[in-house]
Structure formats: C-alpha cells, structure tokens
Amino acid sequence: MSVTLKDVQAAAQVIAGHVVETPCLHSRTLSELVGAEVWIKFENLQFTGSFKERGALVKLASLTDEQRRKGVIAASAGNHAQGVAYHAKRLGIPAVIVMPRYTPSVKVERTRDFGAEVLLAGEGFDEAKTHAIELAPSLGLEFVHPYEDDKIIAGQGTIALEMLAVAPKLDTLVAPIGGGGLISGLAVAAKGLNPGIQVVGVQSCRFPAVYCAFTGRVPEFGASSIADGIAVREPGRVVLDRKRALVDEVLLVEEGDIEQAIVMLVEIEKTVAEGAAAVVLAALVRNPQRFETHHVGLVLTGGNIDPLTLAFIMERGLARSGRLVRLTVELRDLPGTLAEVTGRLAALGANIEEVHHQRTFTPLPVQTTEVEFVVQTRGHEHVREVVTALQAAGFNPRLHDGARDNPRTKPVP
Predict the structure, then answer these.
(1) What is the reported pTM?
(2) Average pLDDT for the chain
(3) Boundaries of domain holding 195
(4) What is the DSSP letter of 153?
(5) Lower CB density within 10 Å: C or N end of the chain?
C-alpha cells in the first residue's frame, strides 16, 4: 500500500464541502459504563447513511474524462453502493451496482433512488464482487473496489483526521473490519499524526477472516450475520499484508453482543446504527478491561438498517433486559379467575401486552387452564416481584426461559 498521511490530507481537500464533517462527541454515559473516556464519530449521519461515500467520492474524482463518460461498476452489500451511486449521479457518471440477492430492501431501494442501475447476484458480498469484476470489461466500466484501492483507503482515512482534530487526546481508535479499507485508512492517518495511537479492529464471530489471519487460525464462516456490511470472507491484501503495521489488535463479538449494542445506541445515544457499525460498541462493552482508563474513539460507520430488523432487535433487547417477559399461569377454569390474575398484574404495575388462553392443547386436568401473558415490566427485579406475588396468590407462574436467555451462544476465542 502506498497511501500516506499526505494522501489522506489531500483526500480531505477533495471531499471538503461535498461530504458531511460528522460530529465526534464525548459520551458521558458510555464513559461511566466502561471506565474509559469514550468519543463517538457519528458517520451514520452522512447523507447516504454511512462513511463509504468518503472513499467513493475520492475515487470518482480521480477518474479520467473517458472513464467518467463510460461509467463505473461497483459491488456492495449496501453502503459502498449508495456512496458510489450518490456521488456518481452528482458528478454525471453512469453507475451499475451489483448487490447480493439478500441485501436489505432499504439499501437496494436507496441505491436505485440515487440513480444507479442495480443488479442482484450472489448469496453474499464476495459472490457479488466476483460478478461485478467479471462484468466490468464486457460493459467497458471502471470497477470501483470497495476497499482495495488507494483512493478509497485515503478517503476513509479522513475520518481519523476529523476525530483527532476534535479530540486530540484519543489514544485508541476502534473500527469495524470488513474488507479492511476503513481501518487501513484510519491507521495511516492516525499513526501519521500520533505514532503511539492504538488502532483496534472488530469483526463478527461469523466472519473472522482478519482475526484468524492475526492469530494463525483457519476461519470458519457463518451463513450470515446481522453485521452484513462487514460479512467479508476475503479481506483486502492491504490489511492482511501489513496487518501488524496497521492494526494493533482485532476483537470478535457475537451476534447477541451486536444486538445489545444496537439497543444501547438507541437508548443511550438516541441514534440508529446498523449491525456493522454497532460492533465497535459491542467490543467495548464486552471487553471493558481492555479499554479501561483509555481515551477511546468509536467509529460508528453507518445507520442503514432495515426498520423491521431494528424493531425486532429492540423487542429482543427489551426481553433480555427483563422489560418484556413471557409467563404462563395456571387457573381454575371458572368465571372471574382470569380477571383476578389480570387485576393482580395491574396492581403490580405490569402492563399486559398479549394474552393467550389455552384450554385444549395442554396436559392440565379438565377445569384447569393455562394463560400465557406477555407483559411489560421495569426490569429483572420487577419481574421477580411479579412472580413472587403470583406464587403467593396460588397461580403457579412459569417464567419462560426466553425472558432470561443470554444471546451469547458460545464464548468468543
């Protein structure tokens, strides 16, 4: 890689006035939670919803007149697609984007809205990328690589310049790793300004390619991840060949960690993050001892998450925190008994969201029934109060395990 600090500074001049200089803010709540001074760079506030338009613009601005006339092609799970499509339209450059077949619809539609032709191909990003590379010569289009390109890397590195200008005491930067373009640019810029700064990457356990390259392990990949933006099986040679010079450490997080981080960002920071962005907070919360006393900058890379997925994650987060629970009680099948138990729940301050009354499909004796409630509570302590009170009243409540489940299904290596 030939990218230098000067290249990143030059890229900053190219994007000035055309890309949002997003806020980098101190989070008092997260700082108190993990015992570090935490700053967040809100790249989810870019016009296209992610940092990717930085590198895309720098690359497009470098094309010759002939390349601009013929147009470009790119492959992306969503954010690179939108960055290329938006700035290509702004610069009058035709664009074709290849996206995996199962890309969230919100990302596909946004890319089309920016004027690009969208082709759906492949089960995941790597297959889409291969298809785009194969199409480029036959269509006469310039391939805009999402991460293995010096212009792209320099553009992404401008994030570090902005962060250190606002918070010069930062001693650790934490960013997601997919293909490696972002973390490569960050490291070049940050270490160019402060050679002692640490750069920490984060990957999903389901797509641990760079982590395994660091540790000498053979990666095993999952079928999918909520962090679809970094679900990359073959990262760029840049980050693999120079990994020790660029990245000090790579941490892994589980799917449940990522879900929890998405919920925390909504509740604490009042901001929406996609899975690939939330991994940075997930790593911080999972490894507080690693960051304790440090001045940590988190790069919140994007907010393009499907609304239905976000709603589902929020409900699961409420269940994990004990604020939404499912419990079953046994009742004598007599008039007024159901009203009695609902009255007790109301008196305990538990708000009933759903009720399922089961008489037939149950092993209980005749004239006995069971009722399943989904109720809103104030948390785990309140749940214990509700269960204890119902037991004392003789209703034999059963709290379903889903209300207590920890989403981490296995230890992170």
Answers:
(1) 0.88
(2) 91
(3) 5-51+155-317
(4) H
(5) C
